[in-house]
Amino acid sequence: MAKVPRIKLGSQGLEVSAQGLGCMSMSIGYGPPKPEPDSINLIHQAIEAGVTFLDTSDVYGPHTNEILLGKALTGGTREKVELATKFGIKIENGAYKFYGDPAYVRDACEASLKRLKIDCIDLYYQHRTDTRVPIEITMGELKKLVEEGKIKYVGLSEASASTIRRAHAVHPITAVQLEWSLWSRDVEDEIIPTCRELGIGIVAYSPLGRGFLSSGPKVVENLSEGDFRQILPRFQAENLEHNKTLYERICEIAANKGCTPAQLALAWVHHQGKDVVPIPGTTKIENLKQNIGALSVSLTPQDLKELESISSDITPKGDRYMDGFPTYLTSDTPPLSSWKA
Question: Which residues form the signal peptide (predicted)?
Fold first, then answer.
């Protein structure tokens, strides 16, 4: 595997690999958890190839993904990586709840440090915005954690443009994590310009459309029990027939470029700017190698124009998430004046 280059993520000093590794699928979301030795081996192979920006969250499992990374990063491996984790989502009585109050922020951070077996988190994101707590209150506690050396950099995930601005005014935001791919482009209207105006790095999760841009409609044929794509709107039969047109067009261009559809889709994200780091997830060494190969795919202005026209012409059918799971489109926080501790 070719070595992965390094870039500056945001303007606060964090340097990471130009492509990261999303670790969620090893523990949750895509069927039963993968065998621990296999996942640890994949993480080590990624690091050896230069993919050192690792992404997890306390809700993945919950907790088991952080525990897995804690086991993978022993024996001097921790010093080789940039580790990102998240707080803010709890599963209570089968439902997702969102928290951003100071006591919760601190407790969540301490618990993640313990599970990860580390002294300091490189990049700590608020996973989803708590619409009951002004973002200034949440950021105030995160700022304290930075000052105490428990975290180095602060991030937001799926935050609205106004929330990003308000948070950044309290303490610099290093990165915003968001879904960005050839079939998820609504972030381009407000979120991306806001990040760039403020010097905030962009971390693109699900850059392969949760496997759809790699395999097309056939990705749903062999989903195992517990794979949450079974309930995602874009993967439902009534939407797949429409959405497969986008995949077919991507396949045509990929064939002409001599690369896979996945590599083309990832290369498109890389070509969106030097401030963008995609974090594709995988549980297979073969896919890890293929994803790294995307860094070698050079897209011409004509290629980019053609891909632009395809994703403009074919708007995916179906929401990104199931009903009841908020995204940045609904995550503004109340005014600071409303806060009562």
Answer: none
Measured CA to CA, the distance from residue 207 to residue 66 in angstroms comes to 22
Buried b (16+ CB within 10 A) or exposed e, 302-332: ebeeebeebbeebebebebbeeeeebbeebb
Residue with tokens 């230069």: 50
Query: SS3 sequence, 32-94?
Result: CCCCHHHHHHHHHHHHHCCCCEEECCCCCCCCHHHHHHHHHCCCCCHHHCEEEEEECEEEECC
Please tell me what DSSP assigns to residue 339: -
d(CA 40, CA 65): 11
Q: Residue 51, class by beta-carbon neighbours within 10 Å (0-12 exposed, 13-18 middle, 19+ buried)?
A: buried
Residue tagged active-site, from 30, 60, 125, 328: 60
Give the residue from 147, 85, 157 showing the smallest Cα distance to 122: 85
DSSP label at residue 9: E
Q: What is the mean pLDDT of residues 304-315?
A: 89
Domain positions in the chain are 6-209+266-295
Q: Which whole-number Å values give the CA distances from 289 to 155, 194, 208, 285, 293, in the listed order?
A: 28, 33, 15, 6, 6
Question: Which residue shows structure tokens 């939407």?
Answer: 239
- Global pTM reads 0.95
153 is catalytic: no
Closest CA to 236 of 122, 320, 294, 296: 320
Which CATH number is 6-209+266-295 given?
A: 3.20.20.100
Give the alpha-carbon dihedral of 325, 329, 331, 335, to 10 degrees: -160
Residue 201 in 3-state DSSP?
strand
| 275-304 mean pLDDT | 97
CA distance readout (Å), 20 to 41, 96, 112: 16, 26, 20
> Number of H helices and number of E strands within the chain?
11, 12
Does position 224 have pLDDT exceeding 90, yes or no? no
